[in-house]
């Protein structure tokens, strides 16, 4: 927003998206790493972010149809935070940026909006043999949350196992070094 003010383009601020990207981790879009003014998380080396600038509700007075009169625009890159305050590595820098290679989407007249999600069936209806299925939750996001928690749990178990193996290896190596050193001392005493 400071750059817009310096350029005398303050009127563009109302079109800016509410954030400038998000962190990527176990989930594609980590909700705790949304890049906005409220997030106080410190970026550390190795963290991956999708950094993007978006503008919404832009007007095109020259559009011939009503759907083309209002549009949105988003430009972004995926970056990795580097140690020592160095410039981030831009993972998307090698991608083509020619206009013919850039993705764009438009909902035309022949496309239909998605149908609203089906509602859960009452348990008594399901037990009576009526069509449908019983849902544990009527919220679509609940299955997503459960799936993400399972992924986090699996990743944590894998990391614990990895750390345990590293610890065993370190102790085994130390024990071998100590045994070798003790053997050398005994050999030195014999001379």
In short:
This protein has 3 helices and 5 strands, in the order H-E-E-E-E-E-H-H.
Mean pLDDT: 76
Helix/strand-derived class? alpha+beta
Strand order of the largest sheet: 2-1-3-4-5
Q: Which percent range describes the beta-strand content?
A: 15-25%
> Low-confidence stretches at least 5 residues in length (pLDDT < 50)?
111-138, 187-191
C-alpha Rg (nearest Å) = 28 Å
Total beta strand runs: 5
Percent of residues in helical segments? Answer: 25-40%
The termini sit apart by 79 Å
User: What is the overall silhouette?
Assistant: elongated
Query: Mind describing the biggest β-sheet?
Result: 5 strands, antiparallel
Count of helical segments?
3
SSE string, helices as H and strands as E:
HEEEEEHH
Name the features.
single chain; 191 residues; alpha+beta; five-stranded antiparallel sheet; 3 helices; 5 strands; 32% helix; disordered C terminus
Describe the protein.
With 191 residues, this protein is an alpha+beta fold. The chain contains three helices and five strands. It has helices at residues 2-6, 123-127, 140-190; strands at residues 21-24, 30-34, 48-59, 70-80, 89-90. Residues 111-138 and 187-191 have low confidence and may be disordered.
Q: What is the secondary structure topology, with strand pairs?
A:
Layout: H1 2-6, E1 21-24, E2 30-34, E3 48-59, E4 70-80, E5 89-90, H2 123-127, H3 140-190
């Amino acid at each position: 927003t400071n750059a817009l003010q310096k350029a005398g383009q303050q009127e563009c601020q109302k079109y800016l998206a509410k954030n400038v990207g998000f962190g990527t981790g176990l989930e594609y879009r980590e909700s705790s790493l949304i890049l906005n003014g409220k997030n106080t998380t410190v970026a550390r080396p190795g963290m991956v972010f999708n950094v993007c600038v978006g503008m919404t509700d832009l007007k095109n007075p020259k559009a011939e149809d009503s759907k083309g009169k209002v549009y949105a625009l988003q430009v972004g890159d995926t970056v990795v935070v580097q140690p020592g305050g160095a410039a981030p590595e831009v993972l998307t820098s090698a991608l083509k940026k020619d206009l013919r290679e850039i993705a764009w989407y438009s909902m035309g007249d022949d496309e239909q909006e998605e149908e609203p999600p089906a509602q859960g069936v009452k348990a008594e209806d399901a037990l009576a043999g009526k069509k449908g299925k019983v849902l544990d939750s009527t919220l679509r996001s609940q299955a997503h949350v459960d799936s993400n928690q399972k992924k986090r749990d699996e990743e944590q178990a894998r990391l614990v196992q990895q750390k345990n193996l590293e610890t065993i290896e370190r102790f085994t190596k130390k024990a071998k070094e100590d045994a070798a050193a003790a053997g050398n001392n005994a050999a030195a005493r014999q001379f």
